[in-house]
Design a protein that fits this description.
It contains two helices and no strands. By secondary structure, it is mostly helical. The protein has one domain. The protein is rod-shaped, with a radius of gyration of 36 Å. The model has no long low-confidence stretch (mean pLDDT 91).
């Protein structure tokens, strides 16, 4: 009989250990999930900041390009008109191919 009591006690201990292990695994999984969410949010924020910086840089560059073109048009209006006319003819021919 002592053998059965010892075996029952071992089974109970094993059940408790398995229950604790399940709780520990659930806790680890929750911690990993929270950490993954936090890292994803951080990456999203960094990407948003970087895209914002790139957009601002592109915007400034385009303003500089427009200003440069305006200066060139003011300096050489006839040449600019001729270039625009030639480009218009070229694009017209290019898109008129049916």
């Amino acid at each position: 009989m002592d053998h059965d009591k010892g075996l029952g006690k071992d089974v109970d201990t094993l059940k408790e250990d398995i229950s604790k292990l399940k709780d520990d695994l659930a806790s680890i999984a929750e911690t990993l999930l929270e950490k993954g969410k936090a890292e994803t949010e951080d990456a999203k924020d960094r990407l948003g900041e970087r895209l914002g910086d790139e957009f601002q840089s592109a915007r400034e560059k385009s303003k500089e390009t427009v200003a440069s073109l305006e200066d060139q048009i003011r300096e050489k209006p006839l040449m600019s008109l001729l270039i625009a006319f030639v480009i218009g003819l070229f694009l017209g021919k290019l898109f008129d191919r049916r």
